[in-house]
Amino acid sequence: MSVVGWTRIGELCTADPAAGEGPLGILRDAAVVAVDGRVAWVGPSSDFPDVDVAHDMAGAAMLPGFVDAHMHPVFAGDRAVEFDSRMTGTPYSAGGIRTTVAATRAASDEALAANAARLAAEALRQGTTTLEAKSGYGLTVHDEARSLIAARTVTDETTFLGAHVVPAEFADRPDDYVDLVCGEMLDACAPHARWADVFIERGAFDVDQARRMLEAAETKGLGLRVHANQLTQGDGVQLAVEMGAASVDHCTHLSDDDIEALAGSRTVATLVPGAEFSTRSTYAPARRLWDAGVTVAIASDCNPGSSYTTSMPLMVALAVREMGLSPAEAVWAATAGGGMSLRRDDIGVIAPGRRADLISLDAPSHVHLAYRPGVPLVSGVWRAADRLV
Ligand SMILES: [Zn+2]
Asked: Which value, in Å, is the radius of gyration of the alpha carbons in the chain?
């Protein structure tokens, strides 16, 4: 049995509102004990018991490891040229994905896994202890399956996104591509994926095509996620709610009916402010969603086209400064919210029974994540009580 403890935590953000103050359930001068990688006890430093390995936090803030529930880390090449042109006046459209598709198809399995590992390591250094990883830049049976095999090397939360965009060779017959996704591609990919995702958008897939692909994936036992309402208000959010998707992501352009549907559902709205930041677009209405009672997560959307960042501290800062969440709400969305987006009850919160995924800050409070944007404040990262950073 291995007993690890952290004591003299100046501000412990449990992310369990029932455990302490505010949405983050904050405890002061607190301590945590983990047994065999799981949290066994949370309490005041004055009651800290004997442990095998003790970490004296000397007043630093600690919070759950970030849960980044929306990443696209399996690809090759980059799109710095596209970014540069966009920053000088060319609007973004979903078709840019095809540039990355060509590079990904040409890359070796080893190169794809190495890129995912590089980005996962980058995310870990910034406090991400759980990440989701999508395919979606292969768009052939073979390239989607090997993308998921590469994703599996960095996480169990793998998502089949053959329905990212219609590849160029199917441009004049998109329904044939939908048939391929629902049939042979899904058969090859389902064994390597926990989730399936569909990009519902002009330039990608419509709601009828999405419904067919999501129903096929569900039949194969995959959980459902949806990219929707990123560039335009459409019926994607309604479809996600109707089908019981775990998460509907982006949610930038929402009607009142969309918000009402989300509020009455178990579907998490996973917001990706990095995409809006990197495309100079309007931000999702996080404040309205939160106030309506929608479960909100924030994620990086790490991808080479519209959000080439792995930084969850940056997402917290953007959610606060650009989307109107309080620092406590933003950190909750980046931890507990991400866990709920992945339908996980073992991560995202510091409470007895949960996996001991904790991070420490070189700061006395979680507020500093938004107050000091761009500063590398994450000073320690533990997954299942093992120190990784
Ligand atoms: Zn995405």
From this structure: 20
Distance 264 CA to ligand 1 centre (A): 24
SS3 67: strand
The rounded Å distance from CA 172 to ligand 1 centre is: 24
How far is residue 186's CA from residue 387's CA, in Å, rounded to a whole number?
37
Among residues 3, 10, 24, 130, the alpha carbon closest in space to that of 349 is found at 24
The residues, ordered by sequence, that sit 6+ positions from 180 with a Cβ below 8 Å of its Cβ are 141, 162, 170
Report CA(164)–ligand 1 centroid distance (Å). 9
Q: In what order do the strands lie in the sheet with 157-163?
A: 66-68, 128-134, 157-163, 195-199, 223-228, 247-250, 268-271, 296-298
Three-state SS for 47-62 is: HCCCCCEEEECCCCEE
CATH number of 3-65+348-387: 2.30.40.10
Domain ranges of the chain: 3-65+348-387, 67-341
pLDDT digits (tens, 9 = 90+) for 319-329: 999 999 999 99
CA distance 112 to 80: 19
Domain 67-341 has CATH 3.40.50.1820: no
Q: What is the pLDDT of residues 357-389, one digit of tens each?
A: 999 999 999 999 999 999 999 999 999 999 999
Task: Answer yes or no: is pLDDT of 95 > 80.
Answer: no
Distance, CA 219 to ligand 1 centroid (Å)? 23
Residue 72 Cα to ligand 1 middle (Å): 6
Residue 98: pLDDT band (50, 70, 90) is confident
User: Could you tell me the distance, in angstroms and rounded to a whole number, from the CA of residue 252 to the centre of ligand 1?
Assistant: 13
Contact predicate 318/291, CB 8 Å: no
Token digits for 240? Answer: 């996600």
Determine the Cα–Cα distance for residues 75 and 25; give it in Å rounded to an integer. 38
Helix (H) or strand (E) holding 226: strand 223-228
Q: Which of 77, 96, 114, 119 is nearest to 306 (CA)?
A: 96
Q: In angstroms, what CA-CA distances link 94 with 148, 230, 260? A: 22, 10, 28
Paired tokens of 157: 């939360």
Fold match between 3-65+348-387 and 67-341?
no
Evaluate if residue 91 carries a pLDDT over 80.
Answer: no
Query: Can you tell me the distance from the alpha carbon of 207 to that of 198, in angstroms, rounded to the nearest whole number?
Result: 10
CA of 326 to the centre of ligand 1 (A): 24
